Amino acid sequence: MDSGWPILSATIAGLAFVAALWWPRVGLLATLRQWLRLRQRVLLEDALKHLLDCEHADQKTTPESLAGALGLPRQKVPALVARMESNGLLNSAGGAVSLTPEGRRSALRIVRAHRLLESYFADEAGLPIERIHRAAHKAEHHVTAEELDALDAHLGYPQRDPHGDPIPSSTGALPHRETVPLTDWPADKPAVVVHIEDEPQASFAQIVAAGLLPGTIVRVLDADSQRLVVSDQQNEHCLAPIVAANIQVAEAPKKPHWLEGLIRLSELPDRTDAEVVAIDPNCRGFTRRRLLDFGITPTTPIRADLGTFFGDPRAFRVRGTLIALRREQAAHVWVRPVATDEATGKEDAA
Fold this sequence. Notes:
By secondary structure, the chain is an alpha+beta fold. It contains 11 helices and 15 strands.
């Protein structure tokens, strides 16, 4: 009887191995096939984004540029191009490739997924802006069109991502705004930061540390071949031209009549009191809910209590509680500064 145990054990082990190898959906072979399909999807969708980027930059896409963007050996690119061409996503001729109308629609869907996910990771998950690109790139290949529509509605239909890039609509419409590099902006003329490039990483980190994020009003104070001195209405920043060139700006919008005499909470100096007048009507979704949850409503007293070494986030005192807000969040709140007379305890509008 004992002599049968080795045979039985070997049989059970063999069956377990076969099950682990061939079991539907969770077996090793099924897992490998799923991984390969995802790998091919990631390559195809990343290729579509690269083609769209080149199209917007008015540059030709070549097999060499595709290989560099995708991190593929040059000899593997023709097979990818052939597969995408057979799927009606691109045309290849004369050593260059270009998107078909269907390819462009597919590319815009990927861009929409990436930028909505960046908005989610910044506003909902609270990730630092320097980490959201990588997180969105990992997640963008796993979401469906229905999930994206639900996410868009949940976020309040944002028009731009945290880098300032426009978010395509569900129909593929892509808003466009004329911008120029900060290095080309005339001195002493107010501008609004519209977009910041996230590459190279060192320049991006310096821009983020300075707090020169989309929505910030800036003014060039001085410029030469070695540096640009920029004011964000609170602090002055000295940037190398190669760094400043990664900041895209446009003419600062004029304040509506009802905003005369008001400033954004992000512009309130440290150790200064103010009264909340309104939350920007364009502030929707999670950011608006967060501000309201903090008790930031009209007529509420608020004080810019503390800054940080990097200037972002800042601490504000609201209803006896100290809260932290990033610059782009505080920029949605319009306040009226209040001058406090410590001796009399009276407060007067500044």
